[in-house]
Write a structure and sequence with these properties.
alpha+beta; Alpha-Beta Plaits; two-stranded antiparallel ribbon; 3 helices; 8 strands; 34% strand
Length: 117
């Protein structure tokens, strides 16, 4: 469990259809994070967006533009955990952007940890 205090938020910007050796890169990244003990990660799908080539991609466009929509995966972890996995994560991202920002965990609660009497 993450405890209140300093942490690092890592955000990975990808395209939904970016491939990896075993499927899509989004699936590969999420599996990697789970296998390496990250406490949690979130994948968000955008309705529309554009990247460095300034080409707008919209969900449901009906052609390749509709398949190439942006997604974001983010997770918050201790700096030590980020340091231990970031090298492999950066090697995985062959088309996208990875950023990290310092943050502060104010509270981390889990319903599974509550005692019911």
């Amino acid at each position: 469990m993450l405890h209140p205090g300093p942490a690092t938020k890592v955000t990975i910007h990808l395209n939904e259809d970016t491939g990896a050796t075993d499927g899509f890169l989004t699936e590969t990244v999420l599996a990697y994070l789970m296998q390496n003990g990250v406490h949690g990660a979130t994948l968000l799908r955008a309705d529309a967006g554009f990247g460095i080539r300034s080409q707008l991609h919209k969900r449901g466009a009906g052609d390749v533009e509709g398949l190439h929509t942006p997604v974001v995966i983010y997770f918050i972890e201790t700096q030590e955990k980020v340091d231990s996995i970031i090298g492999d994560l950066l090697d995985m991202v062959t088309d996208g952007l990875v950023e990290a920002h310092p943050t502060t965990i104010l509270k981390h609660a889990s319903a599974a940890e509550r005692v019911i009497s």
